[in-house]
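Translate sequence into structure tokens.
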Amino acid sequence: MNKRIKIATVHELAPGQYKSVAVEGERIALFNIDGEFYALQDVCTHDGGILTGGTLKGYIIECPRHGAQFDVRTGAVVRMPAYIGVKTYPVRLEGDDLFIIWE
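Result follows.
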């Protein structure tokens, strides 16, 4: 069953910023790209390291450990060494609050 979980407010992230939040015992990376918000698991599928702390360029987050890159909109791999994408979560804005839809 899907749950709607509040993870932040719009004022916590300026455009171009991201942060990691704990949800249901997992780390979720939340991104603000030009006022649009995206959420994905905060884990590199290459070796299990966290993605936050890496470099964000446009819609691409680069893992700080080995340079794998992922598109924050889709979770798709953009550059190896990862070859499996990262799970994404829909983000909903209600007033100033940001929610993800948790499955």
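Note: The two ends are 6 Å apart (CA to CA).
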